[in-house]
Specification:
- There is one protein chain.
- Helices cover about 25% and strands about 25% of the residues.
- It contains six helices and nine strands.
- Strands 1, 2, 3, 4, 5, 6, 7, 8 and 9 form a nine-stranded mixed β-sheet that branches.
- A hairpin with a 5-residue loop joins strand 2 and strand 3.
- The two termini are about 30 Å apart.
- The relative contact order is 0.22.
Length: about 200
Amino acid sequence: MTAIVAEMCAAVSEGGFVILPETADHGGARERLLDRAMGAGRRRKSSEKLRSGRLPSEGLAFAAADPSGQLCGTVRLWDVMAGTDHDGRAVSALLLGPLAVDPRWEGLGLGTALMRRAIGEAAARGHGAILLVGDACYYGRFGFHSEPACMLAMPGPVERERFLALELAVGYLDGASGVLTGCGRRSAERASMGKAA
């Protein structure tokens, strides 16, 4: 596992972009990128209910910059509680999203590089699972599928086949059931990180 994590955590420079930890300087550019890539309806999604008023999980927000230093991609992971297990204990997990790439950079491997960096860093930090709502064909190549999330639910409407999970530890979500709830750091620092989206 360590070789895979090391590969996924490595900074990517091939293709003319670099992936680095998100900073406060990325806030405005990130919001504009998300508006362009996802449209105005992005704030009405069920995932937003879990992110609202919170900051991304510590060390798990990434930005991609082009050779001029302009933001061209973004991904964040958020702390959530993924229901409870068979013994009634709360199950912690991460929620990935949104993943967005500037349309000018689509098809050049930037989304893949952001995903690998996010997954690798989450694994390196000892997280057990990542959940997301997205296209099964796209996210399936990173190991996401619907079965581990079959007894979990989002706090709003979502197409079941788009509710996916990746277990970073084998069997981590076995027996987990219930509705996802947001947890983690509150956004007192929200202004410095950019409005959660």
